[in-house]
Amino acid sequence: MVVVVVVGMVLARRHRVEFRELHPPIARANFARCRGVRLYLVEKIEKNFARCRGVHRVCRRQTPFADVFNEAIADGLRCTNFWINNIELNYTAPNKVLNILESPRRRFFWGDSDNTKKISWVVWNKILRDKKNGGSGIGSLKALNLAMLSRWWWREKMEPNANWKMVVDNCVVQRGQEQKRDNMNNWRWQLEESGRFTVCSIRSLIDNRSLPPADQKTQWVKWVTSKVNIHLWRTLNDYLPTMDNLTKRGVTIPSGTCKSCNVKAECLNHVFGGCSTAKVDWWPVNEESVSGMWENIDKDVGLKRKVRRVIAAAFFWTLWIQRNSKVFKDNMKRERNR
Fold first, then answer.
1. CA–CA separation, 75 and 92 (whole Å)
2. What is the DSSP letter of 272?
3. According to the model, what pLDDT value does residue 75 have?
4. Better-scored residue on pLDDT, 292 or 177
5. What are phi and psi of 10, to 5 degrees?
6. Which of 136, 165, 166, 280 is the most exposed place for a label (fewest CB within 10 A)?
7. What is the pLDDT of residue 42?
8. Strand-pair partners of 273
9. CA-to-CA distance for 284 and 243, rounded, in angstroms?
10. 3-state secondary structure of 189
11. Could you report the per-residue pLDDT of 233-249, keeping only the tens digit for each?
C-alpha cells in the first residue's frame, strides 16, 4: 500500500530529547536556557563571516568604481548559504534562539561590521523567501531546523528495523509514553517526483507557508553571474540606493539631481529609462519604466526571451556601474575642493 505523505511536519514530543544527543557540545546543556550554548553558535557564525569579510575587502580594492555593494551582497548570499547550512541544527531550537542566530547572518548580508552599520534596503523576511516567491532563496533558520528534524522523522518511517530506532523506542517505553506503530507497507514523498524525501523540499514548503507572500517571483537568469542577478532582483523591486530612495531613508545628500543628465531628479525609472544616457544605450526601447521593459521581455517565449533577459540584465548592470562611477567621482572632486 502506497501512502502519499501530505506534509504537516511536526516532530512528536517523544523524539526531542534523543535528537539533542546528536550534537555533543549541545547535549551537555539545556539549549533553550543555557546562554553558553547560544554564545558557542553565535561565535562560530561570526568567525566564519569574518573570514568572508576579509576576502571581500581584498577583492573590492581592485574595482573602485564597480558596484561593490551588489558584489558584497552576492558574496554574502553565497557565504550565508554555505556557513549556515553547516551549523548543527539537529536539535529542537526555540524561536528566541533562532532569532539570535539570525542576527549575525542579517548583519553580514548587508555588510555591517563592528564599527559601521549599513542600510537594510529590504525587509529580512522578504530576502529569506524562496525565489519563486520573490526572495533570494536563502531560507530561514527556523525552516532549516524543522527540516533537519524532519529528516529523522522520515528515516523512522523508512527504516522501521534500524538499530537507532530500537534505541529510541526503548527510551520512549522507559519514559512511559505511548508508542504507536505504522502499518503502512511503503511511504512516498509528495513534494518530489522521485518520491524520495529531501531536506530542501520541506524547507522550501515551511518558508512558503510561514513567510509573507510576494507580488512577483524572483527573475533569476542562469546565464549571468550572481552579482548581476542580485542587481536585477533589486532593480525590479526598486531596492537600489537611488537619490530618492536615500532621501526616503533619511540620508542627507547634496543634490537629488541625476548626475548623468543634471536635469531631472534621480529615481529608478529615470536612471534606466528616462535619462538621456539610458535612452542612448537602450535606443530601440520606448518604455521609460523598468516594469514596462520587463513586461515587454516576458511577452516573448523560448530562447528569444532568455536572450533578451540576459541583455536586459547586462544593460541594468552596466548602466548602474556608469551611474556609480559618476557619483563617486563627483564626490571625490567635492572632497578635494574643500
1. 29
2. I
3. 54
4. 292
5. -125, 125
6. 280
7. 61
8. none
9. 27
10. strand
11. 889 989 899 999 999 88
